[in-house]
Write a structure and sequence with these properties.
Mean pLDDT: 96
Radius of gyration: 28 Å
Number of helices: 30
Bound molecules: 3-hydroxybutanoyl-coenzyme A, 1,4-dihydronicotinamide adenine dinucleotide
Number of strands: 19
Largest sheet: 8 strands, mixed
Structural class: alpha/beta
Strand content: 5-15%
Distance between the termini: 37 Å
């Protein structure tokens, strides 16, 4: 009798129920248990049909990812699927929660499928850098046709039950109790002598013009730049179209084995677990009590305040935005409305959703009244310590006891801000990334006094508003911006030494970054850094000269690049090139040819070296947390797994050798090797092993 798959009968129906928390992943025990249950049902004279259900929050959410990379144990998922499809008694899958990956493949190998209205089904393997490997690429096209299968498998996005029913992935959406609905569906099959449908035998939807595949390859190469897995998916689906089921399965197997062994898949699986690991804070266990969050206030309706408020409105949390004057408030609320309306125009939300979100938001100029009864305040006013201190002193006086007082500062000392209040335990940094309604990262900055229940509440809140939280400590720039400083420093140094902006940006875009540092500077506005330099007496000759010419970036039609009216495409400018040359020669007397490899090494390893220092100081808890910060906040290519994962793939001895060479060449103080890297190399360990220890 299986520990994880229960066998029961309800009259002539055998009910197999998988119970393997948290998500009923298809571990070896589950696969064996399902096969055992089917064999038992087929041997049981009183049984005429089999229902497959799951306990807990979801139907099977996929293969057990923790088994990947380990020796395969029979029976495989393919063996299990074969036993299901070959069962002489009809099998019906009853789906709730999410039937994902191997979970959907298991359902597709049943003869019929029913689902509750809230269920979702999909093949998200591509998000782990692999392809569906247990017939998903062969069976799904047989049900939904080639083009729809390409879209579903290459995007990896699940679809809701109603759409799955419309496409023929599930046979019926059942209201009410799923177990009863599945059993009654099975009884109907028996009563009507319904055919035993094997998806593998269907061929009516498989014909496709070869152009469908070449077009799909081009489309997905552009949409998922640098990712290999969508291309493998298309190869496998093409085999479904042109070959027999068994031959197609052989192609799928070869492709998944190849994908599974790739660096990209290792990186994507690393990020899957890293994202979940980041939720775990050793001294703040899962059962830490939390504070209720029913109402929020945001201070400042600027770039960040507006975006942050949208996150709260999307989650249905009533939120008041506080500004200094009516004009700023109207402008901020107007931008929010326009953002929602643009999303509605693209068909992503309805006009009703726009009004629902806007109804969650209100504006106020009355600071004390607006913050007096809220559960959390997020301050997003100008980046100025004196102003932030003034605001936090006012919050301390006006907020109810127990309210969480958060700052969105991107660099400043959260402890210094907390110290002006009588309640530093309630103060935390919640560092959103621009555009705050889009970027998924939320760096949460714990101060020395931040209370455990504040931390637990804010980690939970992040999930509620759709963010990926990473808990970090206090230092200038925290994790992300401190590392960015080292990265931008090297990018700028490369300009002085011999590159043009497009050389650096081109190399990094080719590496997979969403955009290069100079295009990013033009997007964010070069005047921001210029003003700070003027205030602090610092200089940056190339950027300063661009700003003196009024070249602030995209908003003025030019910065490091030119931008044609209405276009965001950077176009190199000859005058900028001359300034770069001139300032480079002024600094170094000469310029040299610099190749792509050096550009990538100098920028990427600057991130790694600073990341290692941050890790050693305890500002980040794990190397994998740093990877999450970069992947979700800075456009680092997901298929490289983040900077620390990239360093592990290169091998830390090689990383250290390069860092030492840059140090010796005098490429700036960034290159003093992080002692942690030296230690790990001496111990023969990787960052991943460091995290595990
Ligand atoms: N295998 C092993 N563990 C898994 C898992 C899986 N497929 N899916 C989730 N988990 C674990 C998580 O690591 C997490 O563990 P933790 O609590 O120790 O951190 C726990 O289950 C809960 O996961 P979430 O925090 O993500 O829970 P949510 O409720 O937010 O989300 C979910 C649930 C939507 C199912 C989400 O976990 C998910 O998307 N899982 C991955 C699904 C997937 O990619 N399936 C395809 C796998 S590959 C495959 O099937 C190959 C096949 O074709 C051969
Ligand atoms: P912004 O200049 O766009 O907006 C600031 C807003 O605060 C203005 O609308 C201003 O009128 C308002 N304000 C100033 N004093 C106020 C007061 N006393 N009461 C109420 N409102 C007041 O600035 P931005 O870019 O939104 O930055 C805000 C904060 O977020 C800063 O601390 C910044 O460092 C941080 N941040 C900025 C990011 C960015 O990319 N812009 C990214 C992450 C954090």
């Amino acid at each position: 009798m299986s520990d994880v798959v229960r066998y029961e009968t309800d009259g002539e129906i055998a009910v197999l129920t998988v119970n393997y928390p948290p998500v009923n992943a298809l571990s070896h025990a589950v696969r064996s248990g399902i096969i055992e249950g089917i064999n038992r049902a087929n041997a049981d004279q009183g049984v005429q049909a089999i229902a497959l259900l799951c306990d807990g929050r979801t139907f099977i959410a996929g293969a057990d990812i923790t088994e990947f990379g380990k020796p395969r144990r029979e029976p495989s998922l393919r063996d299990q699927n074969e036993v299901q499809e070959d069962s002489p008694k009809p099998m019906v899958a009853g789906i709730h929660g999410t039937a994902l990956g191997g979970g959907l493949e298991t359902a597709l190998a049943c003869h019929y499928r029913v689902a509750v209205p809230s269920a979702k089904v999909g093949l998200p393997e591509v998000k782990l850098g692999i392809i569906p490997g247990a017939g998903g690429t062969q069976r799904l096209p047989r049900l939904v046709g080639i083009e729809k299968a390409i879209e579903m498998i290459c995007s990896g996005d699940p679809i809701p039950a109603a759409q799955a029913a419309q496409l023929g992935v599930v046979d019926k959406v059942v209201d009410g109790d799923l177990r009863e609905g599945t059993i009654s569906f099975a009884r109907d099959l028996l009563q009507t002598n319904a055919e035993l449908v094997k998806v593998r035998d269907r061929t009516d939807l498989l014909a496709a013009d070869p152009e469908v595949f070449s077009n799909a390859r081009a489309f997905w190469a552009k949409k998922k730049r640098g990712f290999e897995a969508p291309q493998f998916c298309i190869d496998a689906i093409e085999a479904a179209s042109t070959k027999s089921f068994d031959e197609g399965m052989a192609v799928e197997r070869e492709l998944i084995e190849h994908a599974m062994a790739s660096a990209q898949s290792r990186a994507q699986r690393h990020l899957f677990f890293a994202e979940r690991q980041a939720n775990k804070i050793p001294d703040v266990p899962k059962d830490t009590p939390t504070r209720p969050i029913h109402k929020a206030a945001i201070l400042g309706a600027g770039t960040m305040g507006g975006g942050i408020a949208m996150n709260f409105a999307n989650a249905g949390i009533p939120t008041t935005i506080v500004e200094q004057n009516q004009e700023a408030l109207d402008r901020g609320l107007g931008i929010i409305r326009r953002n929602y309306e643009n999303t509605a125009k693209k068909g992503r939300i309805s006009a009703e959703d726009v009004e629902k979100c806007m109804a969650c938001l209100s504006g106020s100029l009355d600071f004390d009244a607006a913050v007096s009864d809220v559960d959390i305040v997020i301050e997003a006013v100008f980046e100025n310590m004196a102003l932030k201190k003034e605001i936090f002193a006012k919050l301390d006086a006006a907020c109810k006891p127990g309210a969480i007082l958060a700052t969105n500062t991107s660099t400043l000392d959260v402890d210094e801000i907390a110290a002006v209040t009588e309640r530093p335990q309630d103060v935390i940094g919640l560092h959103f990334f621009s555009p705050a309604n889009v970027m998924r990262l939320l760096e949460e900055v714990r101060g020395q006094a931040t209370a455990h229940d504040v931390i637990a509440t804010c980690m939970g809140l992040a999930k509620r508003i759709g963010k990926v939280p990473v808990m970090v400590g206090v230092c200038h720039g925290f994790v992300g911006n401190r590392m960015l400083h080292a990265y931008s420093g090297q990018a700028t140094a490369l300009l002085y030494e011999g590159c043009q902006p497009q050389d650096v940006d081109g190399a990094l875009y080719g590496f997979g970054m969403a955009m290069g540092p100079f295009a990013m500077g033009d997007l964010a506005g070069l005047d921001v850094g210029w003003r700070i330099r003027q205030e602090t007496g610092k200089t940056s000759p190339i950027a300063d000269r661009l700003c003196e010419m009024g070249r602030f970036g995209q908003k003025t039609g030019g910065g490091y690049y030119d931008y044609k009216e209405g276009s965001r495409t950077p176009v190199p400018n000859a005058e900028v090139a001359a300034i770069v040359e001139e300032e480079g020669v002024r600094k170094h007397n000469h310029r040299r040819e610099i190749g792509t490899e050096e550009i990538i090494d100098r920028t990427m390893l600057a991130l790694v070296n600073e990341g290692a220092k941050i890790l050693e100081e305890g500002i980040a808890m794990r190397a994998s947390d740093i990877d999450v910060v970069y992947a979700f906040g800075y456009g680092y290519p997901i298929h490289r797994g983040g900077p620390m994962c990239y360093a592990d793939e290169l091998g830390l001895p090689k990383v250290l050798e390069k860092i030492k060479a840059f140090h010796a060449a005098g490429h700036g103080d960034t290159w003093a090797p992080a002692p942690l890297i030296e230690r790990l190399v001496a111990e023969g360990k990787s960052f991943r092993e460091h995290d595990a220890s």
